[in-house]
Amino acid sequence: MNLSYHLARIIVLLIALILHEIAHAVVALWNGDPTAKNMGRISLNPIKHFDFLGLFMILALRFGYGKPVPINAYNFKRRRLGYFTVSIAGVTVNFLLSVIFMGIYVPLMYYTRIFYSVNFLSEFLFYLFNFGIYINIFLMIFNLLPIYPLDGFRVIESFTKYNNPYTVFMRKYGQYIIIGLILISVMGEYIYPDLINVYPFLNPLGFILETISTWIVTPILWLWKLIWGVI
Questions:
Q1: How far is Cα 203 from Cα 179, in angstroms, rounded to an integer?
Q2: Number of domains in the chain
Q3: Which of 21, 123, 157, 189 is catalytic?
Q4: For residue 35, with 0-12 CB atoms within 10 Å meaning exposed, 13-18 middle and 19 or more buried, which class applies?
Q5: Residues 136, 91: Cα–Cα separation, whole Å
């Protein structure tokens, strides 16, 4: 894989992760909690947003998560609404970024020759838009899994009592579940790649993300094609 591939991937990952975490912090502030802002999380500095395990996942599996944004729900004007809106802020940004990348990709693909030229810029833009579409969707889907400390768990937490059995279990074992899924997925991706085509569930995270991302991306791309008049 060439320089254009890796450069495009790094740029998209930085945009997707940084804006994801900033969205959490900004929405928390809108809801009355300045904790994240006071800790410097409304920042474009990537170092402030990377989590070691999440970064490893991104490098190894092309998806992951950032350092959880600190919040104090007692500061929220409306606690449950604040908790919920903060929880979905990051994945909402990733979804919108993916939709925007799709909206620009379609006219470039059908009305220009830019993706068909054999040069660095052409390859870079092709990878940039494809990564922009799928990395953001992958991050959205992964972060919506109902496992601690992901956003999906926070969404469930916003609608349930703090000490209900599920949330107590997840706070205690959620990170181990994620590590287990990562290890199984890494083995499937890198150790048994020939078996993945026959048994895709050997890479459970990859299987879930690729299946659901197809359900999401396909109709949105179709809608953009309709808007741009290419179907």
A1: 13
A2: 1
A3: 21
A4: middle
A5: 8
In three-state secondary structure terms, 66 is strand
Cis-peptide into 107, omega within 30 deg: no
Q: Show the tokens assigned to 187.
A: 């083995």
The series of mean pLDDT values per 10 residues for the chain, 231 residues long, is: 87 91 95 93 83 67 71 90 95 98 96 88 95 94 92 92 91 91 78 69 84 97 97 82
Per DSSP, the three-state class of 50 is strand
| Domain carrying residue 194 | 3-228
**pTM for this one?**
0.90
Q: What is the pLDDT of residue 128?
A: 97
The answer to whether 21 is a known catalytic residue is yes
CB atoms within 10 A of CB 222: 12
CA distance 18 to 1: 25
At 47 the pLDDT is: 76
User: How far separated are the first and last CA of the chain, in Å rounded?
Assistant: 33
* Structure confidence at residue 186 (pLDDT): 78
pLDDT at 64: 61
Tokens read off for 125? 């833009």
How many Cα atoms within 13 Å fall on the side-chain side of residue 205?
A: 29
83 three-state secondary structure: helix
Residues 6+ apart with CB under 8 A from 221: 102, 106
